[in-house]
Amino acid sequence: MTPTPNTPTSDTATPNKPTPNNPTTGAESLLLVGNILTMSEDVPLTDDRPLTAEAMLVSEGIIVAVGSVADLTKVAPAGSIRHDITGGWIMPGLIEPHGHPSDASMLLGDSVVDIRPVVVSEADAVMQKITDALAEADPAVGLLANGWDPLLQKGLPTLSIEVLDALAGQTPLVILHNSGHSAYFNSAAAQNAGVDASTPDPVGASYAHTDDGSLAGTANETSAVMTILKPLSDRLQADFPTVIRSYYADLNKRGITAIGDLSWNPGVAVLLTGMIDRGEISMRIRGYEMSGPAGKASVSLVNGTDALKQIGIKIWADGSPWVGSIAASFPYLDTEATRALGLEPHHTGRANYTESELFDIALPYASEGWQMACHAHGDLAIDMVLTVYERLITELGLVDSRFRIEHVGAMTLVQFERAERLGVTVSVFVDHVYYWGDVLIDDLFGPEHGSRWADAGSAFHAGHRASFHNDGSVTPAEPFRNMQTAITRRARSGRLLATEFEVSRINALRAHTTNAAWQLKEEGRLGVLAPGAHADFIVIDGDPLMIPVEELAGLTVRETWVGGRRVF
Questions:
Q1: What is the Cα–Cα distance from 333 to 143, expressed in whole angstroms?
Q2: What is the C-alpha to C-alpha distance for residues 337 and 318, in angstroms, rounded to an integer?
Q3: Are 473 and 96 in contact, with CB atoms under 8 Å apart?
Q4: How far apart are CA 440 and CA 540, in angstroms?
Q5: Which residues of the chain have pLDDT under 70?
Q6: Could you say which DSSP state residue 493 is in?
Q7: What pLDDT is stored for residue 5 in this prediction?
Q8: Left if phi > 0, otherwise alpha if psi is -120 to 50, otherwise beta: which for 503?
Q9: What's the pLDDT at 13?
Q10: Rounded CA gap, 301 and 365, in Å?
Q11: CA distance 369 to 124
């Protein structure tokens, strides 16, 4: 990838060295001077001591020393490049511990109609965008639209196979819900996918049917959604190198230097490794392959490189709060919004698997030493996952499993405490509070359960090294907004979703640095600026420890470096 240089803050280079737009290729020694927030857990950080270092020495992409300018100048090799950062702050590269970059890059490409609520907020505009795209679509190819969300795009019609047949005719049409947990399709798309009324439901997923047994036009949960999408997504594969390059470049602009791919496809590993080796992608990727009926990973436990490796297995224990499919002990409210979703009064969702089924899925992977990561929103689903994890840890004699629970929307303090005792870690989808805060309380769950959604404060109170994430493409990659939202608990309307325990500024920063690195089993190498760590860091335009908390989301990334090389 050709780096996209931003306006440099300041550069001082020795003669006959790389240009200021890229002061080092990663092989030379670099002396970086400026305000450095190391995030090292060996050094206590407090609001009255925001700086932990003023210089950092890098050689061959690895941090050699961190300390004072005077001390590091003495030990820097002859010919080292000095790079001064003025008017900015240096901190570790940010980590997105739960994304779907391979999938998100395709869904955000030009071949897919983007109707996400962060792009199109009004229902009429959503329908117009789909109608316009259908008018230009090739019936032999079909059309895929991504981002349908009736809760945020008020007034959208209820989708059925009849509605979509009338809209698209013989052109295959699939509309993917913004959560990714449901897809709506017409008859032509069903035929394309080889799905009819007699098609059995995949394990942990389903095709909705009408009262007379015919297809209703909805696929629920991963396996069913992927089956419906496959004919359209197969046609998008030719675009993959272009869209994935663009997607990772955008993450670099947002300060992200490492990511967990929680729907990792091992089939793209060779392609991505080549792109990384050629400098087309500058990202450290950690993959979690989706569990399969064979119960065996596609690669051995020891695989990959520092840049790209598979480290875990992903399972979905329940679904999405936005489509009524989370396994919770409390019902959905009976509101206009829930009725529009097709939910009956007092509706409760259910888990994708029984406890026994989930254990049987996880056992062969855990036995081989894979880290498990399980999506779970509802408190009943979380109880089930914890019980399965406890059994795996006990029966297999596991130590430091770092089994993960993802999103944890309705997770309670008691459950956080139980998870901590087991050594199970959590990644909290705090951006739900920002975008859906009002929906959670007024439309779905009421104040008792809605206001405590994505309760990061309880996670930290229970002793967790919790992380935050954006689950791209569900919400944009915005780590600093996650930090602000976790601290303030304010929706974008300004509404406060109060919880019992606050999130400190330090813990919010750790959620996208040291904690995320620990969850990816990269502690000491990622998420920190310390000797032996990769020289992955960013330059931002403010002090993240001292600026008003309401300004965290507005921090601008000026530079991004990966392996001692500036990539943005």
A1: 34
A2: 21
A3: no
A4: 33
A5: 1-27, 43-51
A6: T
A7: 27
A8: beta
A9: 31
A10: 10
A11: 50
Q: Give me the pLDDT at residue 26, please.
A: 53
pLDDT value of position 1: 27
Question: For residue 453, which of 431, 469, 420 has the smallest C-alpha distance?
Answer: 431
Report whether 559 contacts 566 (CB < 8 A).
yes
**Could you read off the pLDDT of 417-447 as tens digits, one per residue?**
999 999 999 999 999 999 999 999 999 999 9
Tokens of 263: 């729907």
Residue 523 DSSP symbol: B
Alpha helix (H) residue ranges in 468-552 = 479-488, 505-511, 514-519
Report long-range pairs for 302-310 (Cβ below 8 Å, ≥24 apart): 304/269, 304/273, 305/273, 306/525, 306/534, 307/273, 307/276, 307/283, 308/269, 308/272, 308/273, 308/276, 308/284, 309/285, 310/264, 310/266, 310/269, 310/286
Would you state the pLDDT for residue 238?
Answer: 85
- The CA distance from 131 to 111, in Å, is 15
- Residue pair 66/42 in contact (Cβ under 8 Å)? The answer is no
Distance CA 371, CA 301 (A): 10
Element (H, E) at 66: strand 62-67
Structural element, H or E, at residue 148: strand 143-148
Query: Whole-angstrom Cα distance, residue 470 to residue 454?
Result: 12
**Distance between start and end Cα atoms, the chain:** 11
